[in-house]
Write a structure and sequence with these properties.
Elements (H helix, E strand, L loop, with lengths): L2 H23 L9 H42 L8 H17 L2 H15 L6 H19 L10
Helix pairs in contact: 1-2, 2-3, 2-4, 2-5, 3-4, 4-5
């Protein structure tokens, strides 16, 4: 499904969800509401829904790519040393892409995880697991999904 189709679905969903709310809220405003007064609200709902979907569609692949690169680097590391240089560079590259899509709490968690991966000394497995857990929690929060929700629905 392309970006245009996703944006159209989000727009239709926003309109479908927004119009009944606006319609039933009319009596609470104690005056008649014309279509011209409702239209800006509907357009704002459509715009915000499309923007959220666009951010979601950009962030998820960046988060998954970073996590994939981290796992590849950890899998390639020897018991006595760090991951090979090309794997550590791949983690840095994925981190740079992640910095572009943010938000700051996800970037901070990713930076900490990347630092542990790129460290010349092998860190304890508990530290690495904690850093991954923090990153995943921040990513899920940014995407507004529950545990296991980073994979494409």
């Amino acid at each position: 499904m392309g970006f245009g189709e996703v944006a159209l679905i989000a727009a239709v969903a926003a309109v479908a969800g927004g119009l009944p709310v606006i319609w039933f809220a009319r009596p609470l405003r104690h005056r008649a509401t014309s279509v011209a007064e409702v239209l800006p609200d509907v357009l704002q709902l459509i715009g915000s829904a499309a923007n959220e979907q666009r951010q979601h569609d950009v962030r998820r692949p960046a988060y998954l790519e970073f996590l994939f690169r981290v796992e590849k680097a950890l899998g390639a590391a020897s018991p006595s040393g760090p991951a090979p240089l090309d794997k550590r560079r791949a983690v840095s590259s994925a981190l740079d892409a992640l910095r572009l899509v943010g938000p700051d709490d996800v970037v901070d968690a990713a930076q900490h995880l990347a630092t542990l991966v790129q460290d010349d000394q092998r860190c304890p497995a508990d530290d690495m697991d904690r850093a991954k857990t923090v990153f995943l929690a921040a990513a899920r929060s940014a995407l507004g999904v529950s545990a296991g929700g980073l994979a494409r629905e």
